Amino acid sequence: MTQKANILLVDDRDENLIALEAALTSLDQNLVRANSGEEALKHLLGTDFAVILLDVVMPGMDGFETAAHIKQREKTKDVPIIFLTAQEIDRHQVFRGYASRAVDFLLKPFDPWVLRSKVEVFVELHQLKAQMREQARALQRDLGQETGEPGKILAEQLALRSRQVQSDLAELREHIVTNYQDVDQPLVNGVRRMDRSVSQLSTLVDTLHGPE
């Protein structure tokens, strides 16, 4: 039986949290509330989340600052973030959000069906990655039993190549953020898709490689 995923809802207004819960209840996952960026970070200390729905405009620590803290932590840096905002999104906000490695923006009032569809994708991806980790552990055991040292060397080489790809992608992401006025949206979307694919690949490779 597939384990339920945790979804973090972050908004300083209770009525907005209630609206989010109403839209997502049918997914039958664990919905966790936070009324501030600080509270969200506390939840992330001990709980694994499939996706975070994060309000942009909040008193104290706003959504962008909260996302920056989330992405700085090794444990949470790969958790997808969907920003929620009642304001029209300008080009600067889009690239500021991209710098925080958010995966999407949704304007309030949001369409419940659209919100639910987007979140469902990340829940399925989270559950798929969990399955991949289990398969990778089984493959790691098989490599150790059947091939010994050559299997370990192969895993190390794959891990090295994966880190190189992630490093190159980080440089490209930084270039886009620094030169956002001269970068077109199709390139941004392409890098985002690549970012997600590399994240999935690194999950498999890192688990196969095992702890260093």
Describe the structure concisely.
It holds the Pfam family Response_reg. With 212 residues, this protein is of the alpha/beta class.
Descriptive overview:
About 60% of the residues lie in helices and about 10% in strands. The protein has seven helices and five strands. The two termini are about 30 Å apart. The chain is α/β, with parallel strands linked by helices. The model has no long low-confidence stretch (mean pLDDT about 80). The chain has a five-stranded parallel β-sheet with strand order 2-1-3-4-5.
SSE layout and pairing:
Layout: E1 6-10, H1 14-24, E2 30-34, H2 37-46, E3 51-55, H3 63-72, E4 81-85, H4 91-99, E5 104-107, H5 112-146, H6 149-178, H7 185-209
Parallel strand pairs: 1-2, 1-3, 3-4, 4-5
Counting DSSP H or I runs of 4 or more residues, the number of helices is 7
Q: Regions with pLDDT < 50 over 5+ consecutive residues?
A: none
Share of helix, binned: 55-70%
Main sheet, how many strands, which sense, barrel?
5 strands, parallel
Secondary-structure-based class equals alpha/beta
Strand arrangement within the widest β-sheet reads: 2-1-3-4-5
Radius of gyration: 19 Å
Outline, from the CA principal axes? globular
Q: Tell me the total number of β-strands.
A: 5
Strand content: 5-15%
Domain Response regulatory: 6-123
Keywords: Coiled coil, Phosphoprotein
Modified residues (4-aspartylphosphate): 55
Coiled coil: 122-175
Which structural traits does this protein have?
212 residues, alpha/beta, five-stranded parallel β-sheet
